């Protein structure tokens, strides 16, 4: 390097190493190594309890019904004595957390919210487990949902910003693998505990408490995760961004045994560095927002219409509660397996086409689940639905955060993701109502329609994102 070039590099380094262009260039040249994967794992541990909480809704439903707190179906569409109400308040809380509080991670930082949202969830969940009235059970479920809502969008923004784009798909696949280990875990806990009352305490209450105890442990473990350099840089805290990324670089260099190559600043469009919330109503973001709102409404109905109701749907097909939980436990094993397999292709295929393909699989397998009567065929279709659902999940969690700039990423992703909470909320009432009037076949006819809409809007209006920089 010439003296003039060297001087230019040194001058640039001294004055602007924490600028968004420098941060992007430095992040993008990081190699895949154990340290970055460790950060993804630590972030994902919090997500494990998010999904544990969402999934235990379906698995403990038979236990809550037996205890007399809730009923399986309701005479009216909005019946607040049924399982549908429990599902609904969960997603009302999640909606509040994602839509109304999505600005908090963009304002206070990913790490702060990431840490304290879990505390809110844990306290509310422990109190909920001891409730003996339907009203207070639903109230504390609402508070727990709010904590989870803020946590969910923070995790997605965090991962998008802590890894280079060439490994973002694999990072989300690993994240979802760890998170979806919650499904067989809660299925096993429910299969074991729900039919019993250990120490005179209802089994379904034990299933809830286990989530809170585990979350406390994770809270201490993941305090080692640093703040997002992208977020700090966008907030003008360039010195802090530089310091944190320098620490990451030192750790990476220590692992790979060599110095990193000199980073080249990346061009970042002005629309990304100056983006504000009102920009979501204008080009180029308006079409993306509308597409993702419709997508989230429909995918949530299809996803939670099955996952939150699987044991109950099996019981409606004439299968006993014990066998229903046993089959659900077997089906749940496909949940973490799907994103684990996806690690092999996550960064080779556009996320939008993964979403479209998996929606098609869900529609086809759902028909079989509704119509087949042989246990082997039912379980096979359930496995296919779960496999496709969790593959779709890793793809869209990456997709709906990488399309927005870091400056408004959490809030923008929270707004579009909140539509999934609305869809999931109404799925509780809708499934209960359709199940009462049209049976299991009617439920899956509705799910198929939702998946067809997903296929259409994403294939036609969804942008390509694999090469999107996280700035």
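Q: What amino acid sequence fits the structure above?
A:
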């Amino acid at each position: 390097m010439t003296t003039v070039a060297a001087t230019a590099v040194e001058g640039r380094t001294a004055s602007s190493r924490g600028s968004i262009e420098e941060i992007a260039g430095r992040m993008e040249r990081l190699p895949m190594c154990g340290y970055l994967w460790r950060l993804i794992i630590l972030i994902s541990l919090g997500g494990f309890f998010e999904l544990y909480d969402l999934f235990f809704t379906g698995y403990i439903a038979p236990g809550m019904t037996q205890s007399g707190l809730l009923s399986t179906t309701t005479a009216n569409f909005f019946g607040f004595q049924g399982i549908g109400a429990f599902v609904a308040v969960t997603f009302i809380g999640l909606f509040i957390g994602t839509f109304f509080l999505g600005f908090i991670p963009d304002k206070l930082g990913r790490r702060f919210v990431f840490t304290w949202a879990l505390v809110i969830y844990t306290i509310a969940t422990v109190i909920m487990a001891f409730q003996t009235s339907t009203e207070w059970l639903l109230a504390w479920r609402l508070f727990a949902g709010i904590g989870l809502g803020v946590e969910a969008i923070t995790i997605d923004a965090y991962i998008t910003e802590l890894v280079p784009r060439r490994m973002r798909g694999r990072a989300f696949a690993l994240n979802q693998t760890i998170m979806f280990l919650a499904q067989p875990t809660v299925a096993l806990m429910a299969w074991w505990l729900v039919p019993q009352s250990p120490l005179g305490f209802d089994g379904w209450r034990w299933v809830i408490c286990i989530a809170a105890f585990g979350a406390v442990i994770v809270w201490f473990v993941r305090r080692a995760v640093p703040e997002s350099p992208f977020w700090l840089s966008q907030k003008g805290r360039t010195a802090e961004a530089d310091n944190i990324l320098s620490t990451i670089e030192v750790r990476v260099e220590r692992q790979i045994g060599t110095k990193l190559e000199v980073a080249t600043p990346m061009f970042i469009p002005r629309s990304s560095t100056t983006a504000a919330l009102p920009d979501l109503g204008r080009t180029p973001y308006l079409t993306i927002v509308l597409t993702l709102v419709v997508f989230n409404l429909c995918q949530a109905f299809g996803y939670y219409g099955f996952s939150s109701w699987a044991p109950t749907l099996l019981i409606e097909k004439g299968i006993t509660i014990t066998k229903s939980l046993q089959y659900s436990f077997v089906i749940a094993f496909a949940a973490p397996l799907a994103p684990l397999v996806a690690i092999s292709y996550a960064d080779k295929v556009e996320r939008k086409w993964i979403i479209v393909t998996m929606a098609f699989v869900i529609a086809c397998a759902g028909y079989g689940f509704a119509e087949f009567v042989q246990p082997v065929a039912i379980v096979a279709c359930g496995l296919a639905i779960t496999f496709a659902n969790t593959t779709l999940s890793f793809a869209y969690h990456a997709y709906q955060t990488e399309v927005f700039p870091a400056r408004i990423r959490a809030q923008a992703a929270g707004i579009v993701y909140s539509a999934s909470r609305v869809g999931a909320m109404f799925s509780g009432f809708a499934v209960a109502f359709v199940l009462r009037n049209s049976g299991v076949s009617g439920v899956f006819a509705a799910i198929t329609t939702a998946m067809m809409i997903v296929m259409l809007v994403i294939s036609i209006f969804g942008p390509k994102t694999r090469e999107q920089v996280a700035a």
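Q: And what stands out in the fold?
A: The chain has a mean pLDDT of 85.
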